[in-house]
Every structure is written in C-alpha cells, then in structure tokens.
Amino acid sequence: MTTTLDDAAWVRRFHPAPHPRARLVCFPHAGGSASYFFPVSRALAPSIEVICLQYPGRQDRRAEPCLDSVTALADGTVEALAEWTDLPLVLFGHSLGASVAFETARRLQAAGTQVHGLFASGRRGPTAERDERVHERTDEGLLAELRRLSGTDGSLLGDPDMVAMILPALRADYRAAETYRHSPGETLRCPVTALVGDDDPKVTVEEARDWAAHTSGPFDLKVLPGGHFFLQDHQPLILDLITARVDAVA
C-alpha cells in the first residue's frame, strides 16, 4: 500500500514493508510528533509495519490549526486510517496518545473494524479523572512542566525559535488531555495492556488499573521502573510485548 494524499497529513510510514503480518498504529504524547516512534518502526520492520500519527499544528503540519480535544483527534485519526485497515491493527498510545488511541479503537470497533490490541502507556484509565490545568498556565509554566517530566531535550527548550514553534501545539495537546472526559458507549472487546512507570507523577498504578474496566477482553498491567517517560528506558521489553500481541493475532 502506498500513502495517498489524504493519508499523508495524518499518517507517517517510515519503513514500508512488502508483506507485514500486522500494523501497529502509534499515537504521540502531548507536544509529541510521529517521529518520536521512528525507533519503534525501525525495530519492528519488516514483520510489523508501523504507522505513526502526526497531529495537526506541529512540524510539517505547523501551519494547520491545532486540535484541542481528544474527540477531534480521534475523529481525524479514524478518517485517516480508513485506507489502512487491510491488516490486523494494534494501537499504541503514550500519555495523551493513549486516550486518543482508546477513542479511536471505540470508533473503529463500532464501525465494524476489529482492533486486535490496545497498549495504553503513561496514562490513567478513562474514568480515573484528575483536575489538571497545566494548559491554563503561562508559556513558562508549560515549559516548566516539560522540564519536570523530562520528555523533551532540555537544550531545545533554551532555543526561543524552537519554543515558539512548539508552544501552540503543546498547549492544545494539554488542553485535550486535561479536559477529556469519558462518555458512556462502546466497550472494547480487544486485549488491553496498561503500562506505567512506578515513579510517574501523572499516573498512579491504581489509575492505570482503571483501564481494565474498559474492555471485555483480557487485561494486563505492567509496572516498570521510571517516571512519565519510562518507556525510553524499556524499549526492548515493550517491543517484545507488542510482538507477542501480534503473534497471538497472526
């Protein structure tokens, strides 16, 4: 399959595979971009083809208006994935991306497209709500949060031009994450794996366990050493989990 013009805005496929067994769809965190998952794509190719979401308002989509709700991001993702459902789909989202992946999975399932697995990383379950208002802070307050979570190269945050480029998308993403509220509706039937760092200030283990209530399929919880971006230190294990899920499908 080649990338069509309609796909091009939302979907990045870094390592096209001639005969993949399944397709992993990756959803970035707040302020993140598709390129964050380039190492995952490289590691899983060619057996598993990885496609990564590029939300509006960042990098080559910087001129487009940002979307500041999980609902809008999921709606856009579902439309973009319409041409990519010829293989079994497994979804992986980190932080904000986990909520967008969950809502995308609900929409796909309701439309008759089976999702074969959801990995929800670094994000509390849909009904484990917090009153968070980072998106209402000043620009410096937003940047302070990035430094606290260690999700962005500190040298980039010292570059005024770079900061000016990332702030609009970052604020919109935080607004989407912090104003998201679960609405009754489709319960997933696919396996769900929640991943959480044991020192994550954004998610407790019990908040991660809330994901179990949102699927009738198998649920697994993996607690790993680290903070909000624990996954950077545990890539081999996470790749093994993804591969095992695909093996179960294929």
From TrEMBL:
Keyword Transmembrane helix: no
UniProt KW keywords: Hydrolase
Name by which UniProt lists this protein: Thioesterase
Keyword presence, DNA-binding: no
Entry GO MF terms: hydrolase activity
Similarity comment: family membership: Belongs to the thioesterase family.
Species of origin: Actinophytocola xinjiangensis
GO biological process, one term: lipid biosynthetic process
